[in-house]
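Justification of resources, computational component.

The compute hours requested in this renewal are based largely on the per-chain cost of generating structure records like the one below. Each record pairs the submitted sequence with a full structure-token output. That output is archived, and it is also reused by downstream analysis tasks.
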Amino acid sequence: MFDELLKYNIEPVITLSHFEMPLHLVQQYGSWTNRKVVDFFVRFAEVVFERYKHKVKYWMTFNEINNQRNWRAPLFGYCCSGVVYTEHEKPGRDDVSGAASPVCRQRPGGESCASH
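The structure output for this chain reads:
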């Protein structure tokens, strides 16, 4: 696909994650709440960056990372980033900052959301 895009002077822009957390990673590891899943994602990113470095210049690691608003949907944890909230953690319907907090606390280097 990359070759065909480039043939027509279309610059590929690739998103590595668009909410599609593999079900196994959610069930076996607890999704992004488990550091192992973060490490798996880092390895995945390194592999695709290396493999396609001569064909893709622009990469987005995550798309709409703070789009966690419909947590009441039955499949929310599996189709929206793989983050499954406990009753205590579930954000309010319009609480965007609360919705993003489980993802923010997973940032490498201990960065807080407030610093960005």
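The first strand starts at residue 13 and ends at 17. The CA atoms of residues 20 and 79 lie 6 Å apart.
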